[in-house]
Prior knowledge:
With 297 residues, the protein is an alpha/beta fold. The chain contains twelve helices and twelve strands. The strands form three sheets. It has a six-stranded parallel β-sheet. The chain has a four-stranded antiparallel β-sheet with strand order 3-5-1-12, covered by helices on one side. Helix 9 (216-225) packs parallel to helix 10. The longest helix is centred in the middle third of the chain and has 31 residues, at 108-138. It is elongated and about 70 Å long. The relative contact order is 0.15.
Amino acid sequence: xxxxxxxxxxxxxxxxxxxxxxxxxxxxxxxxxxxxxxxxxxxxxxxxxxxxxxxxxxxxxxxxxxxxxxxxxxxxxxxxxxxxxxxxxxxxxxxxxxxxxxxxxxxxxxxxxxxxxxxxxxxxxxxxxxxxxxxxxxxxxxxxxxxxxxxxxxxxxxxxxxxxxxxxxxxxxxxxxxxxxxxxxxxxxxxxxxxxxxxxxxxxxxxxxxxxxxxxxxxxxxxxxxxxxxxxxxxxxxxxxxxxxxxxxxxxxxxxxxxxxxxxxxxxxxxxxxxxxxxxxxxxxxxxxxxxxxxxx
Length: 297
């Protein structure tokens, strides 16, 4: 462990990412590529001591996320060998097709072995940031914010939620212990929405509690019980507007369920505080980023 250099470690930590948690993900990605023990193409075609520069280049416009993660891949692959990293863009930047995002200088063997894991992570996270920015732009000026969910890739939650932040979104809970979300199954088990809310408040008085409701009648019930954050599940735009009027500022409201970008503006204009969008992490297309080798010496 601790094969990530101090400079890249600082970048990760400044981004709110834990280098100790990211290094095993990188090891797994590298192990998938080197399952047979050797990169046969690179070993056959590239002299061992050859050095090069590898540019990571946007092939499509988008918002960048994961540059420190990609940099960590190059650090881990290179091991004790010298590798120089130069950053042209920063996470959260909008890039155009043809823009260089970052460059790595080192042994060609190391660069080519790091290329695919670095691109996989950078492209995936940048895709999430790009999708998030589209939602953020769609609701700009309304006072609402777009939030992610726990519909994330196993093992990648911290990185994917970081990418949402890079795109201008805000995070929902990271884990089941951060906050309570009383959903329909909890309501059924507890015998009612108000009783479920009360049970959580009694058992965990210091934990934020959000309650999911699927009708205006349930909304009235949880507002009377003292809920301060309510998730409106599959409400129509008209129902959301009525929910905002009934709530009258007593609680924050989050729209969820079946939301799409083409209705984002209308939903945000109802006055809800948040739009919960699972697609930010579970369905965002990868941003096309390539790697171009140059200055071979």
